[in-house]
């Protein structure tokens, strides 16, 4: 099943969500028992089929965020059965309700644009700790230098606030500090400079990359990692954490 996983992930991203398929129907499509499929899926990917499906639904809603769409329209379009499940899942993965997310976009956009214009980096961490790691970033030549986000996450789907994170414009010497003991995934994405407000929230087209192996701290403290950012591919999990909101909140010290 591991060798088929890219095909399975691509199918879920490109077809299953639009067809409103359940995890059981997806398992049946590929000829697997639902329990075996769910178990192996999580074992290979580090996240469940249900979490992947719900994250893709939230991404669909974010893609359609604009002034013309009502919240109820977003719920139906993204495939959630009820307004309650839509609002709760959206808030769980992005940190804001759909209405709050939409109303805060302009302020966050202008805040990120101001951040792009200076040389500072902004870090985020949950608690003080001695563990750290250094991250270097490689980007394609055509990257229009904007903001690079680097973080340690509990799963390979960045649908939660990072354990330790950094917003920066620097490619080298980026230090993630105050990393608590535990096992985490090192992920990064980059947002090219743009005047399109949605490009700072819909990160489906953003460059991204990761450290292939899960990192265990404090064993990995002091090490240096290099992440090569690339264009997205169909099997990539969606980037749902509202990195702009996290950045602006840190600048305002409101977290």
Automatic annotation (TrEMBL):
<keyword id="KW-0804">Transcription</keyword>
<protein>
    <submittedName>
        <fullName>Helix-turn-helix transcriptional regulator</fullName>
    </submittedName>
</protein>
<dbReference type="GO" id="GO:0043565">
    <property type="term" value="F:sequence-specific DNA binding"/>
</dbReference>
<keyword id="KW-0805">Transcription regulation</keyword>
<feature type="domain" description="HTH araC/xylS-type">
    <location>
        <begin position="6"/>
        <end position="104"/>
    </location>
</feature>
<dbReference type="InterPro" id="IPR050959">
    <property type="entry name" value="MarA-like"/>
</dbReference>
<dbReference type="Pfam" id="PF12833">
    <property type="entry name" value="HTH_18"/>
</dbReference>
<dbReference type="InterPro" id="IPR018060">
    <property type="entry name" value="HTH_AraC"/>
</dbReference>
<dbReference type="GO" id="GO:0003700">
    <property type="term" value="F:DNA-binding transcription factor activity"/>
</dbReference>
<keyword id="KW-0238">DNA-binding</keyword>
<dbReference type="InterPro" id="IPR009057">
    <property type="entry name" value="Homeodomain-like_sf"/>
</dbReference>
